[in-house]
């Protein structure tokens, strides 16, 4: 048997108003939490409050209100009041009042797991313990000894060997609200993009600006050419930005949520999408441009999208977006495949293969010029060991592989734009944005 104690007597210091009364989908936040608790299989529901408006809402749902006369004593005071006022002296769940997405189904899941062994029961996602947790009543005295703004984490750490972990994969159900802006975040769709090169980053940029949360994956040593407009750069630089949108390299999956909450794009090294073993996403986009499918499957997310050749819409993914320059660039296919790879770079002012720099041999790169430099035909751009690589045309260096990278013969290592506009080097290309538009169509059409 389980009692739910809703914690609703905080000061909302980061907001300077009672965040629990903020409206979400026509109701105050706290009302959603109360509804979820009341609709669950909990044997009783209490709420520890300090504001009369919260009390009035609770009473409409026949929730027992417990007035916190000393909310300034911190979270420990609310927890003590909960333990002291429950009638069912078995399991006690402490449910934060600002988590409206933790529905009765998830509450029931925790209760069912608690009933199996009557131990401390905690939600576990991305290698992290989350709230709400269920504590056996026998730990009452441990909680009564707490002081200040300290909650169940101390008890969890003290009895870690006894924890009953319940594994979840939907991170959004644990979203809470600390700032008014967090209300909008509750409804954001989560998109996972495999690859963080130029095209993938153009897609991420457009989706981020349209209100999606983005996670990106990369290989351990990306060979990105257009480094100034690719979020893959943060693998080397730890943090980078593209047109004002920031990304951060994340080594541990438990840090992903924190980076998302900071309104940045977490980028992790994960070649085989192992993150999907820990996390559900709304949309998966394979943006590696590998020209073949390296393991993406149509059932990996509600909406799966492949960019360019290598995917069949309706078989490998839900939709395919055309990446070949020309009349069909950015077009969405819901059946069939994108055009095959031509092997010829897109034409700019009549130039195709001439504008691309390739490695003359296996070896280590030493940059002489860098992205944004204006060059003339014959100018020395870089060295591969002792072999020179020179510009074949006049223009501006739009893309160049990272200094010190070990390359293989024939590998693309640079790109010269004959238009000569330096600003283009630091802006996502029209091709990337056209593809991003197709991705956005596929997502919105899918929902």
From TrEMBL:
Domain MobA-like NTP transferase: 5-158
Taxonomic placement: Bacteria, Bacillati, Bacillota, Clostridia, Eubacteriales
Highest taxon, organism lineage: Bacteria
InterPro entries: MobA-like_NTP_Trfase (IPR025877), Nucleotide-diphossugar_trans (IPR029044), Se-dep_Mo_hydrolase_YqeB (IPR017695), Single_hybrid_motif (IPR011053)
A Pfam family recorded for this sequence: NTP_transf_3
Gene Ontology molecular function terms on file: nucleotidyltransferase activity
Gene3D superfamilies documented for this protein: Spore Coat Polysaccharide Biosynthesis Protein SpsA, Chain A
Protein name from the UniProt record: Selenium-dependent molybdenum hydroxylase system protein, YqeB family
NCBIfam families the UniProt entry points to: matur_yqeB
Organism: Caloramator fervidus
């Amino acid at each position: 048997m389980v009692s739910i104690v809703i914690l609703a007597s905080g000061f909302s210091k980061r907001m300077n108003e009672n965040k629990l009364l903020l409206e979400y989908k026509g109701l105050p936040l706290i009302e959603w939490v109360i509804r979820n608790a009341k609709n669950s299989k909990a044997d009783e529901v209490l709420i520890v409050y300090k504001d009369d408006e919260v009390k009035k809402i609770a009473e409409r749902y026949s929730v027992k209100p417990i007035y916190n006369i000393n909310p300034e004593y911190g979270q420990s005071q609310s927890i003590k009041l909960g333990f002291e006022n429950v009638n069912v002296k078995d399991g006690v769940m402490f449910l934060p009042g600002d988590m409206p997405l933790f529905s009765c189904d998830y509450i029931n899941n925790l209760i069912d797991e608690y009933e199996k062994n009557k131990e401390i029961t905690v939600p576990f996602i991305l290698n992290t313990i989350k709230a709400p947790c269920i504590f056996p009543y026998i730990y009452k005295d441990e909680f009564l000894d707490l002081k200040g703004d300290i909650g169940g984490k101390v008890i969890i750490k003290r009895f870690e060997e006894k924890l009953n972990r319940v594994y979840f994969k939907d991170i959004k159900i644990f979203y809470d609200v600390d700032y008014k802006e967090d209300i909008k975040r509750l409804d954001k769709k989560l998109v996972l993009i495999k690859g963080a090169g130029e095209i993938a980053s153009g897609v991420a940029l457009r989706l981020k600006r349209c209100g999606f949360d983005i996670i990106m994956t990369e290989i351990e040593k990306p060979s990105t050419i257009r480094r100034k407009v690719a979020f893959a750069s943060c693998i080397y630089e730890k943090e980078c930005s593209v047109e004002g949108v920031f990304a951060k390299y994340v080594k541990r999956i438990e840090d992903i949520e924190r980076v998302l909450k900071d309104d940045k794009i977490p980028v992790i090294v994960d070649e085989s999408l192992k993150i999907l073993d820990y996390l559900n996403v709304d949309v998966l986009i394979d943006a590696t441009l590998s020209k073949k499918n390296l393991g993406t499957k149509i059932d990996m997310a509600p909406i799966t999208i492949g960019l360019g050749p290598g995917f069949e819409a309706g078989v490998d993914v839900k939709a395919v977006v055309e990446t070949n320059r020309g009349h069909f660039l950015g077009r969405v296919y819901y059946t069939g495949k994108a055009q095959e790879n031509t092997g010829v770079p897109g034409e700019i002012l009549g130039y195709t293969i001439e504008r691309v720099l390739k490695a003359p041999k296996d070896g280590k790169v030493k940059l002489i010029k860098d992205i944004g430099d204006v060059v003339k035909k014959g100018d020395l751009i870089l060295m591969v060991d002792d072999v020179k690589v020179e510009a074949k045309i006049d223009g501006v260096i739009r893309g160049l592989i990272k200094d010190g990278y070990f390359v293989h013969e024939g590998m693309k290592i640079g790109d010269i734009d004959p238009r000569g506009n330096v600003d283009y080097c630091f802006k996502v290309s029209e091709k990337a944005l056209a593809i991003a538009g197709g991705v956005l169509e596929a997502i919105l059409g899918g929902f």
